[in-house]
Amino acid sequence: MVTDRRLDEVGARLRGAVDELPTGSPEHAAALAEYRDALTSLRNRPDGFWIAGPDPLAAEHALTGTVALDSLASVTLLSDGATRLVDRFGLASWDEALAVLDSAGPDELIRRTREAEDSDPDGRRWPRGKAHDDATVLHWALS
Q1: How far apart (Å, rounded) are the C-alpha atoms in residues 66 and 64?
Q2: CA-CA 20 to 30 A from 50: which of 41, 80, 98, 103?
């Protein structure tokens, strides 16, 4: 598995008040605006993180890896909003999330993520920038 944690590492340094305030409150909105400005200043910089969308040259800084095709059962790509069930909420392991994808598909993984988000609309249990994040999943079973 290849995972780029640079945004997580930068975010952890900057989040402070965002994680301490109720999601959706005016104070949270102000802290979130400051956080986003700070992130913007570190986007596509060596001391920050890389996003290819706004700058295709950022792809030169991508983390890559290889695995033997015959060792794979599936290939899965997830946006950060779709990884929340595992890496933000801790309600599933990666093996469990892949089992959901194999048995019920992306809609079920996203449904479970939305259910968790709905159970904590103020971000008290799981501090986060917004109550719901966009969630995109591509899951390709190879067998």
Answers
A1: 7
A2: 98
22 contacts 122 by C-beta, under 8 angstroms:
yes
**What are the residues facing 77 on neighbouring strands?**
138
CA 16/CA 31 separation, integer angstroms: 9
Written as one letter, the residue type at 112 is: R
List, for residues 59-116, the tens digit of each pLDDT value.
899 888 888 999 999 999 998 899 999 999 999 999 999 999 999 999 999 999 999 9
3-class SS of residue 47? coil
Contact 103, 67 (CB under 8 A): no
Residue 118: what pLDDT? Answer: 96
**Tokens coding 85:** 């069930």
Selection from 111, 117, 110, 104 nearest residue 136 by Cα: 110
